[in-house]
Amino acid sequence: MIRSELIQKIADENPHLFQRDVERIVNAIFEEIIEALSRGDRVELRGFGAFSVKKRDARTGRNPRTGESVEVEEKHVPFFKTGKLLRDRLNGNA
Amino acid sequence: MSKTLTRMDLSEAVFREVGLSRNESAQLVESVLNHMSDALVRGETVKISSFGTFSVRDKAARVGRNPKTGEEVPILPRRVLTFRPSHLMKDRVAAGNKTEA
Description:
By secondary structure, chain A is of the alpha+beta class. In chain A, 40% of the residues lie in helices and 30% in strands. Chain A contains 3 helices and 5 strands; from the N terminus they run ααβββββα. In chain B, the strands form 2 sheets. Chain B has a 3-stranded antiparallel sheet. Chain B contains 3 helices and 6 strands, in the order E-H-H-E-E-E-E-E-H. Strand 1 (42-45) of chain A pairs parallel with strand 1 of chain B, so a sheet runs across the interface. Chain B: Keywords: DNA recombination, DNA-binding, Transcription, Transcription regulation, Translation regulation.
């Protein structure tokens, strides 16, 4: 399923809404999650999962092609942990 | 200090974006999460451009060990969900959390 298919499903269920508003709604949800993570906040969606930010320490990396060492700076990366309900549903337990 | 957002904050974002009631905004957030979950349970990959990709992977059975007791426990084959953030999300999260040196 891709973004446009998700938008279509929501639009089909809500015939009273304009397609362009459904697009704005779906986009606003994903945008809000990215903004929260960019501020260092977590987003916890019970049953679905939680988005958080993890810190990756600075390290000395290596260019795999040349073998040359490179300093990799500390950085923060997005992380998702699946919620219990969804994890159980994936395994047919709910 | 970092805080935790919930469904309520996402509904609030929808409410601000389009002039719907708070109640309807909350229902829309729920529908989005439900459609994504249903697709994943069917084994589909959910690919949201400029956000990221959720995919389901099959894990084989293996023998695990209780780290406390050292006891061997069988781990059954199972399906797990992985999320791969888009480049855009990674870049924005990295930029937003950059600590000044």
